[in-house]
Structures are given as C-alpha cells and as structure tokens.
Please model this.
Amino acid sequence: MEDIKSRLKLLETDLKKLESRLKKGFATGTTKDWEHILHQTRKIEELAISQIAILKLQDIKTT
Model:
C-alpha cells in the first residue's frame, strides 16, 4: 500500500507542476512529461490489478 501511496504522490506532484505551467500560460508539458505521467499511471494500475487478484484469491480460499 505504501508503494501505491508514494506513486500517487509522485503523480500528483507532476500534475501540479503541469497545472502551474498552464496557469502561467505555458504549454501544458512536454512529450517527456506526459510519457512520465503515463508510465507512473500504468505502474499504479498494474499494482492495483495484482492486489485485486490477490484479494480475490484469498476470498476464494476462505470460502
């Protein structure tokens, strides 16, 4: 769970930086910025999917 929280914090920080740039009238980020955010989002999604699978297996074993 700590891993998910730290990844979400990093993602939130990156999005705030992009929002700040947008408010200043700059472009909303480079391709590299968005690729980084996409990579973080995928990692969070993969971790969440694996955790859901583990929970479902645990439920099956206990019923």
